[in-house]
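Checklist before submission:
- one chain only
- standard amino acids only
- sequence pasted in full

Submission:
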Amino acid sequence: MSPFRTPSPVSSVKIHRALIGSAVAIAAVVAGTLGAWSAGAAAQPAAIARPAGLVGEASPVRSGPAQIPSAQSASQPSAGRQAGELDAFSATALSSASGKVLHAPQGKSKAAPTPRQIARRLLRHFHWSRRQFRYLDPLWNRESSWNVRAYNGYSGAYGIPQAVPGSKMASAGQRWRTSAATQIRWGLRYIKDRYGSPRAAWEHELATGWY
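Returned file contents:
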């Protein structure tokens, strides 16, 4: 038989069908892969699909440990604030870090001096030592209980030193009816002119019941 014989028609058809079947299978696999890739890409959001008009953009997510701001960085004032000012977030961060509640500084109100405190201060203006107050205190405590509005309806005496009449205390300052400083200044002047010292006035009070 000749080696260059004509191939059988049946064999040619089988080979042709086998080749076509393989090509179709390969095409199906490639098409399926492309379809799966297209479906996955469609599920991802587009990089350019952001709302218009945003001032800043969020940074992309990166792998690695998350960065937590420290209390020191939170305590630093921003560039738009003056030094010493804290917003609510920074104040809360500082409060949590230190365990202390931050309060705004408030001005301290100074209480007005009492009549006894005023009398102690005025003693030196009459060249008396502070020890004279131990005699002045019981003297005016008996006369008026150190009350600027004390009034004796029988004699007309008025105020802490029980001046008669009370209007004469106007020579020592303003508001003689309500000012403890005016009344005490007048009373000390009266004691100095008449007795020389609170001790002598108190001794007279003990002896006679008045001064």
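Reviewer check: Residues 115-208 form one domain.
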